[in-house]
């Protein structure tokens, strides 16, 4: 499997295996664990590249923004409350 396909697959599943993660530092070991489980034959240099590229992609897409803000309303934050 090509690295870009692995990155895409991991990005597609990121909401599941990175649920509750608020920073790239927290995400890194979970991504490595996901790769170990799903791509056990990946070489160390390729694994490192996938982790770096996936973290960069998630940051560009704003994956870590707004996480852990303490608002229990989730996506409803910012909308007026119903009376």
Protein architecture, described:
With 83 residues, the protein is mainly α. It has a domain at 3-60. The chain is built from three helices and no strands. It has helices spanning 3-17, 24-38, 44-60.
Which whole number gives the mean pLDDT? 85
How many beta-strand elements?
0
**DSSP strand content:** under 5%
List the secondary-structure elements in sequence, H or E: HHH
Could you give the distance between the termini?
Answer: 53 Å
Overall spatial form: globular
Low-confidence stretches: 69-79
Secondary-structure-based class equals mainly alpha
Total helical segments? 3
Rg is 15 Å
The main pleated sheet reads as: none
Question: How much helix, percentage-wise, in residues?
Answer: 55-70%
Please supply descriptive tags for the structure shown above.
83 residues, 3 helices, mainly alpha, single chain
Short description:
With 83 residues, the protein is mainly alpha-helical. It is 57% helix and 0% strand. It has a domain at 3-60.
Summarize the topology.
Blueprint: H1 3-17, H2 24-38, H3 44-60
């Amino acid at each position: 499997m090509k690295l870009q396909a692995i990155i895409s697959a991991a990005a597609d599943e990121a909401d599941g295996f990175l649920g509750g993660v608020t920073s790239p530092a927290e995400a890194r070991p979970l991504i490595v664990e996901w790769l170990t489980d799903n791509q056990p034959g990946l070489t160390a240099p390729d694994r490192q590249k996938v982790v770096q590229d996936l973290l960069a992609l998630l940051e560009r897409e704003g994956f870590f923004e707004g996480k852990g803000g303490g608002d229990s309303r989730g996506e409803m934050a910012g909308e007026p409350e119903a009376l």
